[in-house]
Task: inverse folding
């Protein structure tokens, strides 16, 4: 029996990707959705993450458009084999930058409506 914890040697994301995901891929609809998300993420982030690594992932996550958030960044970092620690910090910095961009845009729009 597999355990998720220090005894099995698998962290939570490794457990999901190696055990649960492999099990769920047996179902057609899950497999179809997983392949779609993987292809879309790889197409959107492919060149930048592969070429620039940490910085490419951070910029990809920081763009406030649908499909470029932390979930897509996490999938991209897994697909391209980035170090988990670097991927975590790239996602964290990227989502912070994205939040600041959205916040400033919202403030500017609110001031524009008041005038």
Result:
């Amino acid at each position: 029996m597999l355990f998720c914890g220090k005894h099995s040697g698998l962290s939570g994301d490794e457990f999901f990707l190696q055990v649960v995901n492999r099990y769920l891929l047996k179902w057609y609809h899950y497999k179809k959705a997983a392949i779609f998300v993987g292809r879309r993420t790889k197409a959107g982030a492919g060149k930048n993450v592969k070429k620039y690594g940490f910085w490419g992932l951070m910029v990809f996550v920081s763009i406030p458009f649908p499909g470029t958030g932390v979930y897509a960044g996490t999938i991209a970092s897994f697909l391209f084999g980035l170090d988990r620690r670097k991927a975590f910090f790239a996602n964290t910095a990227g989502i912070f930058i994205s939040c600041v961009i959205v916040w400033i845009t919202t403030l500017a729009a609110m001031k524009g409506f008041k005038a």
User: Anything to note?
Assistant: Confidence is low (pLDDT under 50) at residues 1-8.
